[in-house]
Structures are given as structure tokens and as C-alpha cells.
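Task 17 of the worksheet. Students: predict the tertiary structure of the chain below and write it out as C-alpha cells. Keep your answer in the requested format; marks are given for formatting as well as content.
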Amino acid sequence: MQSANMLLRKIVRNSVLPFAAQHGMKKDSFQLSRTLSLSLCLKLDKSCEPSEKLDLDEWKKVMKSGLQEEVSETVSEPKELSSLAAARETLEMWRLAGRAVPEKISEEQLKTFMECPSKSAKKKYLKYLHIKELYKKNEKRKMDEKRERRLEAQDEASKTDETKKSSFVCLWSSTMDKAYNWRAAQSMIFGQPLVFDMSYEKEMSVREVANTVRQLVLSESCNRRSVDPFHIHFCNFKDDSLYQREFIKHYREAWDKLLITVTDQCYTEIFPKDKLIYLTADSPKVMKTFDHDKIYIVGSMVDKSIKTGVSLARAKRLGLETAALPLEKYLLWSTGAKNLTLDQMMHILLTLKDTADWKKALEFVPKRKYCGFVNKPVKDLKKTLDLINTLKLGKAREEVEKKLARNYPKK
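Model answer:
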């Protein structure tokens, strides 16, 4: 009998007490001595029968409540599933009725739809989802149209490129390149030399050097396409310099195939000094005519950041003759600096070489810098030019103040 009692105690400890603790019930409500009490005769005499029956009513109640909760948990899941299915059915009914309902809806959106407090709130939420879905469809349609237009433009461009790259056009371009190269090769033997002084790298920034190289590339292409090109010389050109790196960026593999002369020597070591003329805007001597027997030197630099007189000082230090373009003689100079870019200088010199006409040559000067060409002699226009300069410098105001001081002296 004692073994039976111990077995019942173990069952209660292992099953009932943990379940009761899980559901917040106290251990005091289960007094083992009360529920499993036996008569004294059972303890004293094993042959006696128990006077009391086991009181397991509380145990049954707890077990029943646990089973009901488990059943309710298992039943709640199909209830949620059934509510979601019902919500989907209502959505289908509203869609068939013609209301604003989205075509695709996620479970989270469906749960928020179910949590809406009223029917109007549910309608507003579904309308919001419907508008959002339409907006996404519209954006996708626009992206598809843009992609189609881009593909059509690429197809048209490829077709035009194919038409451009016909046999006749390719033949024409190849023959013209051969003709240009032939002229450049002839100029290296018989052409008039034109020197670009490449000794100004240390006086410019990286950006200014890149701008200078860009202008030199334009000058070389303009010279190569002219009827009678110059024989271009890049003097004072150092290997692995910033000039060379920028030229390689532009020309790449064609840099070694250019029909020009590149040397690290100075122009005074290659040509006689009596034939060299350094073109600089700071020169006091004005160039009147183009001399085909002279060798003109152009400084390869950007004049905006260089101090005035740098190229003139270099020419004087080397004992060379200098000259400036007659811009004021032929142009009514209004605004801007009188320094020109290297490609503009190349256009002017090529035109002078071919035509010897200053008006045609100076047409390559930007029109924002001058008002027009001079039609009267310079002496007649000197008064107007002086008047413009005085107005710019504010000297007219000083003269007016002097006249007022003379006419109305202070007491």
C-alpha cells in the first residue's frame, strides 16, 4: 500500500504541479496530505482496508481545464484561417460589385483590413491600396515606354551609322586622311616652321596644362587640314612631362605617328636667331605683314593665369625679336583681354600665310571682344579710343571735378 501511495505522489508531482504552476495556481491548493490521506490503520497494519477514498476532484478539474485550453488553442488557428478566407471572399464580392479593390493583397494588408473598426474604414483602406497599385502600374508602364524609346533610338542610331559607314563614305574619308597626311609629310620637308615653346609647364597648374594641350590638339588638326600647313615644332619638350601625359591621353597610340617634330632642344639651338620672331601680346613692336622667311614662336601657355610679360622677358633674355598682332590697328577693341588662344593664333597665321589679308585673318578673334573693323585712319579714331579708355578708368570724372573747382573756387 505504501508503494501505491508513493506512486500517486510521484504522478502528482510530475504532472499536476508543473501544469498548475504554468497556469498560475498555487501549490497550497494541492495539499498532498489532504488529497492522499489514508487511515492510520493503513500505516500501522497493512492488512487493513482504507477508511477514506482518494480525493482527486481538484485534480480532475485542473486536467479538464488544461484540456479545454489546449482544444481552444488548436481551434483558434482554424478560426483565424477561416476569418482570412472570409475576408478574401468579401474582397472578391466587392470586386465583382465594381468597388475600388486591389487585385493583389498580402496577408499583412488583409489583417489590417480585418482590424479596421468600421465598414467605411475598410472601404477607405481598400481604396488607398487600389490607388497605390494603380500608381505602381503607371510607373512601370512609363519605365517600359522609356526603355522602348531608348531601344528605338539606339536602333535608329545604329542604322544611321551603318549608312554613314558605307563603302563610298569610308573610301572618301580614307582618301582625305591620306591627302592630309601627305600634305603634313610634305610640310615637314618643304614647309615653313612654326615653333611652340613648351617651357611653361612649371608656371601653370595641372588644369591649365590640360587646357593648353587641348588647344594644341585643335591647332594640330587645323594645321593638318589646311592647304599649305606649317611644319610644327614642339621645342623644350621634356620626356615624361605633364605635357606628354596629356598628349597621350588625347592621341593614345597615334601620338608616336604624328607628323610633327618633338624635341627637348631649345629653338635657338635649331634655328638661327636672326630668323626667329617671338609672338607675344606684350611686345612694343606691332607685326605689319606676314614674313614667309621668318620662323614664328608661340608660347604654349594659358595667359589668364600667367603674369604679363613672361614671354616677353624670355624672348629678351634669349636675345630674340618680338612682335604683337595689330589688333588695335584693325579692330575696335571693346572688352576682354587681348590674349588669344593657341588654336585662334593658328587660324590667324594660316590665313595670313594663304591670303595676307588681316581682316580675313582677324575674323577668328572672338566677336565678343571687339565692336567691328576700323574703317577710318587710326589718328581719327584715337580720340574715340582715348575717350573710351578714360571712361573705363574714371578719368572723366576727375576732369569734371577739376573744371568745377576752377569755375567755383572755395572761399
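Marker's comment: Residues 26-54, 70-77 have pLDDT under 50 and may be disordered. Residues 187-373 form a domain with the Alpha/beta knot fold (CATH 3.40.1280.30).
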